[in-house]
Amino acid sequence: MAIGREYIPGIALGLFVVIVICYMFIVTTVKGSEKQVFTQQENWIYDFVDKAYIIALPQRRKSVLKILGQVGIEPAVHPAYLKKYIDKRKLIDEGFILPGTTVTDARISCHYSHMQVLQAFLSSGAKTCLIFEDDLQVKFDQAKTKKYLQGMWADLPETWDVISIGKCYDSCSSANSTSNPLIVKAPYARCRHAYIVNRIGAKKILNMAKPMLHLPGDEMIANLVRQGKLQYYSSATNLFDQDRQKFGSTLNNGDGNMPECTPQ
């Protein structure tokens, strides 16, 4: 049956529309695939942990994500609990601080932020979590950082609760070696700019690292370690350091970078 000439423009237009739709579908599919591959590459850290968070002040968020992007890590952002929003009466009622606490508002807000992230991690059902603070700097490139973590994960201590990959002021001379030369038992590590925690460790910290009276959060955790209540390990060398010279300190800790070990 012959097609009338009056129908030809409509048929041509219909074919054109079909071709355009097919082209857009192919382009969208390809771009989506490219984006998925890129995301997997950027988040290689999830080969080792189930969750990764960065506790970030608004003014530091962009810069610290760029820093972590240098080693291909893209964590979820947890907005830092700002000291200007602290309600001490409420925190006393929650059992987070004690009346008459001498801990500064900045240190209270810092510790509260970490506790919020630990609670979010537990609520997610994940088994392991990596937590960053927003004043860090990377020590190695992506390949070396990933290789080090692969070596750590090949032989983790069975009893670990927390593994710091960015400690400071630890009693390194008293550190106990493990079967893995990349991991040591950290006797009194402080600083929380980069650490990995499992569910048992998170529950212990949430239950025992409060209420705050005189000590900041990392000192409270270090005391739990010293008392044998928290199994705390660290990488034999830091993978991440604090960059105080660039970011300063919101906790009035000075502008100098923190040493990995306590000077002997």
UniProtKB/TrEMBL annotation:
**What UniProt keywords apply to this chain's record, in alphabetical order?**
Membrane, Transmembrane, Transmembrane helix
Residues crossing the lipid bilayer are: 7-26
Pfam family name, one: Glyco_transf_25
The Glycosyl transferase family domain extends over: 53-220
Name this protein carries in UniProt? Glycosyl transferase family 25 domain-containing protein
State the organism named in the record.
viral metagenome
